[in-house]
Amino acid sequence: MPIDSVLLACFAADAAGSIGISGFDNWFSGLRAWHVYHNMQWNGGDEYVQLILSGVRKLAPSSSTHDPRPPVRLAHLEAIYDVLDFLNSYDAACWAVVCTAFWGVARLGEVTVSSAKAIDPTRNVLWKALMNWRNDSGVQSVTIRLPWMKTSHRGADLILTYEDEFSCPFRALQQHLSTNRDLPDEAPLFAFRTADGWEPVVKHILMRRLHEIWSARGLFLPSGHSFRIGGTTHLLSRGTSPQVVQKLADGAQMPSISIGGILS
Q: Which UniProt keywords apply (predicted)?
């Protein structure tokens, strides 16, 4: 039988102050999904229940939420740019990663791997990734198909355009693909050549190096999510329309071709 509104309200009240907002919302969504699946009436929308839910959200422990993440700024990219050797295979890959994440409005974890032993083709973009290189009326761009994003597990398109900036993601990606050419198909897109073969760019190792660079410059230390926030902030501040930024963040669908032909 369906759960009545009083029992739902009691369930919610019992959780007040002990669980974060997103965690409780997941619980409640699960209950609703069960009712929908079994074609039963859902009473979670009753005014009485909604009043209790409002209280639960207000009483969520502060430890269950993150402080707002500060954005990566151009000063952070400049600090990285000043110390990297772009003829070095690892540095070229790292620079391509940070420029891609910033200008592509992506989370760092969406373009790196969590471990050299945890490469997953369903989550990590690979060297054989489908890409679309375009030149529309003089505007150069490349679209990379990501198999997974935090907000879209079905994947999305990451779009990079040529920028008249030292941190141009289009040039950074081309430099990386040239320096680290001919990697095997199973390698991540952002991998680099080593004396023994190749290695992927691992997120926590990259972040440790970036923090060392930023600390030496006296800059605050952003997180991996801060690249997405920083890219969004920068694009909006220079007048890019919110609709375009939203499309970049969500992953606009575009036709794709193989990477193979661009390095011949």
A: DNA recombination
